[in-house]
Amino acid sequence: MKPWCILRAAATVLLVLAVISSAGCWSRREIQEIGFALLIGLDHAAEEGKVMITVHIAKPFSLLAAGAGTAEEKAYWQVSSTGRTVFDAWRNLRQQSPRRPLLHHSRFIVFGEEFARSGIREALDFFYREGEVRETNFVVVAKGAKASEFVWGEYELEPMPSRGALGVIKQVAQELSTIVMVTLNDFLQMMEAEGIEAVASRAEQVWRPPSQDPRGQLKNEVIAVSGRETGAAAFKGDKLAGWLDKVQARGLQWVRGKVRSGILLIEQPGKENKLASIEILRATSTVTPKISEGRPSIQIKVDAVGVIGEVQEYLDPMASEEIWASMERRMAEAIRHEIEAALDIAKHEFNSDIFGFGAAFARRYPKEWDGLKRKWDEEFPKLDVEIEVKTIIRRSGLTRRSMQLVRRKEEV
Amino acid sequence: MSVLEGGKISGRQFMAVLTMVRLVPVTLVFSMVTSASNPQDAWIASIISGVVAIPFAMLIARLSLKFPEKTIIEYSQIILGPVLGKLVGLVFLWFSIQTSVNIIRALGEAYAIAIMPETPIQTFMIMLAIMSCYAARSGLEVLSRLGEDTLFIVGFIFLVACVLPYNAMRLENLLPVLAKGMSSLIPPVVASLGYYSQFIMIGMLVPYLAKPEEATKYAIYAVLISGFLTTAGCVSVVAALGTTANSWTLPLFSLARLISLGEFFERIEAGIMAAWTLSAGIKLALFLWAISVGIAQLFNLKRYEPLVFPLAAVFIPLALVAFESMVDLEDYLSKADAVAAVIIAVAVIALLYAGLGVRSFLFPGKEKYR
């Protein structure tokens, strides 16, 4: 045998070995060995000084059936785990989960109210240090509930609570603008930056009375607990300061320039107690900080465009110009009312600059801000805020004048 | 003309590999942002350092053009004499070796941090080194052609990462400009200039240009392209990550993680990792080639190819022992390495120009060195 033949044989053996050994990579994660966590909730554990995390892990086998609407079992597994730190609790989950839980596909970070009130700074580190958690997770605070309780809530039309909650949040943000939608990235920036306090989405539990449906079907299962996502959670530092309801949350969104759409109810001109629904088409805002004679003040300008979506009483916009102008004024007034509601609660109840007025000063007047930031807690509640709202009602839908469906003798 | 390397490269290939030299740290650790106390102004630092880097690149290119078909290793011996010249060559090699070691470790750390924390870091380092060794052994021509194609891919990924997280970006994050004064710009400018100092590699590349007279032009283009991409990266990172920008280990990677378009175009960090690997691979290949050729020229070897694999085999353990941790590496890259690189590059160029001046004073009329 020639020497190069031996070499060749040796090389072949080596290559075959290489192929066999390279069947998987070191950090491989087989799909049948992992479980995708869909959300993660944080609470204080019953034991003093411990945190409890709650996750939903998708059940891959029931996911397939869920699409057909025949699922007999829940499509997810809710499990809680405790530990001294968040990472500790997360790892302790391995004691209960036969599959390795992964956070890559998580959509929500839910804080229980009690947990949020006591400060969340320590818990947040895990979420931006651990590479599995995306900064595009939405931050939600559960009102009046622990996170572990809130995530019981299920949603009709969606087998997964995380998908259901996401659907609700997106719709509310798009169609009502009465919620603040905050990703982890936004949240961290708001917590770190000077002159702005953090906000997060507010979520509530909705209990439904059992056996709502009296008709007695074969299968009559109604979801007992559901979620409702509206409003905002306002923080002061890393502690939850309080809640903004729907009106106040939209007031905040007007200032942040995040209003996409929504319905404004105004009183119809000339008609007592009759409402007109104005659909908001779009809105923009500018926040201008001013310092005159050492006194800081803020000017908010909001430009909003709407259309008449509905009126309860007869309306003929062609009859007089005044009607149209009056509706625009009332729309502006309604917007101003919402902004003032938000300002009022932020200034006087929370003393928390969720609007980022301080940050606006820091950008515009960096030198003055250096002095201002030390006493911002005293300055913010007495800050002069000037609100200027410009509104235009563009059109009135397919209808020009309302139909007179109930003809009144005296008008005919 | 040295017989070591017979390749000829075009101006665009020259530009592409140089751009890659600057882009590697940007795609990986992005010292410009992470070393800044005030990352909001990193884009100003990027522009300043780019402006400073242009005359520097021009000086090296001009110097190389005075000695056609000679590398910096060879002409430093002509200018400064055999002893001092060889010393300058050794300093250049030492500098390049340190840079190669940094690249290897940085890529390994990046992979370990980003996706595969359990995998031993050696795996990534060895893979990168093998890939780059093959490229380096194939010669400059192959390497540069690869670099030219790779630049499009890396540039494309880079721009995608800078543009697509637009719904997370707020441009007011860039304000106020220069809130902490000009002095806060010094660390990022130094960090950036440290990487531009690696453009001293021009001295190795110019003799192999098909049209050497284009060297200055394309060196400036390389500074402009890499400066533009770096500035765009600074702006995007700060707009999307705000004041938290300098808390991320791998800012560009974190930036790409924010991309989420319509719930289906997301999780494209794999693209960033491709950019890491490609850019680091090309850069390491270039440095391995330059070090091997440099050693061969310094010690009058007939071939450089046999040096490539042993060199890489030495670099990997060096990369493992040189840094305790990622924090150690980042600290070194943004401070000591950057300062040392600037000093070395400036000292070498100044020494060579001074030597040239002294020679033309002693031997007037002999400016041609053919």
| Assigned CATH architecture of chain B | Up-down Bundle
Portion in strands of chain B: under 5%
What's the alpha carbon Rg of chain A, rounded to whole Å? 28 Å
As for the CATH topology of chain B, it is Amino acid/polyamine transporter I
- Distance from N terminus to C terminus of chain B (CA atoms, Å) equals 10 Å
How far is the first residue's CA from the last residue's CA of chain A?
117 Å
CATH class of chain B: Mainly Alpha
Write down the overall geometry of chain B. Answer: globular
Q: Largest interface, per-chain counts?
A: A-B, 20 and 27 residues
Number of DSSP E strands of chain B? 2
Report strand % of chain A: 25-35%
The helix content of chain B is over 70%
Walk me through what this model shows:
The complex is a heterodimer of chains A (412) and B (370). Chain A has 13 helices and 13 strands. Chain A is α/β, with parallel strands linked by helices and 412 residues long. Chain A folds into two domains: 205 residues, no CATH class; 157 residues, GMP Synthetase, Chain A, domain 3 (2-Layer Sandwich), CATH 3.30.300.210. In chain A, the strands form two sheets. In chain A, strands 1, 2, 3, 4, 5, 6, 7, 8 and 9 form a nine-stranded mixed β-sheet that branches. In chain A, strands 10-11-12-13 form a four-stranded mixed β-sheet, sandwiched between helices. In chain A, helix 9 packs across helix 10 and helix 11 packs across helix 12. The N and C termini of chain A lie far apart (117 Å). The relative contact order of chain A is 0.09. Helices cover 71% and strands 1% of the residues of chain B. In chain B, strands 1-2 form a two-stranded antiparallel ribbon. The N and C termini of chain B lie close together (10 Å). Chains A and B meet through helix 8 and helix 11 of A and loops of B.
